[in-house]
Amino acid sequence: MNQIVSLLPIILMLVVFYLVVFIPENKRKKKYAALLNDLKLNDEVMTKGGIIGKIVNLQEEFVILESGPDRAKIKLARTGIGSVRNSSSSDVVLEKK
Hints:
InterPro entries: Preprotein_translocase_YajC. By secondary structure, this protein is α+β, with helices and mostly antiparallel strands.
């Protein structure tokens, strides 16, 4: 019985560690995977390196961005996308009745 009581703090620390580290990390991974799956043409995105561009072509593993005043095209892996700044679905204009 004394051995079980001495292991209790270690078990409690492992449970707290799991709750604090692994659960939020899994949520973040799911949210990022959903972001990559929801990419659409004409979405304005920011890469992990800080480049901002508009998606002009979507492929299975790669994305082609158009960036800068001269509209340079950049091919990068989907996992290089850091965030979506403006989604093309937000460009829909609502009509007033």
